[in-house]
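Running low. Got one?
___
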Amino acid sequence: MRSWHWATYFEMQMGNPAKYTERLFAPTVLIECDIAMVWAKYELLVDGKFDHCGVDHFDFVRRDGKWLLYNLTWTNQTKGCPGRTAAGSSGQ
């Protein structure tokens, strides 16, 4: 497990010329008063090629009528990905 402050995470991404595309699958959204969460499987493509998949978990809080991202947690795997074979190639 690794943990970063948002500023550290964005610093690590700065200057990286790669193009990241993340696709979410069948997100579940739960809202109660001023808190919400989104749970979804995802796959990440780097420069158009499959890199890994996993589960994203987003926590949101509503402050002054605006939803703010409070936390992001995710898994990182290369097997058992939606629409992928064990080797990671497209299964579609």
Notes: The radius of gyration is 15 Å. The longest strand covers residues 49-63. Helices lie at 6-13.
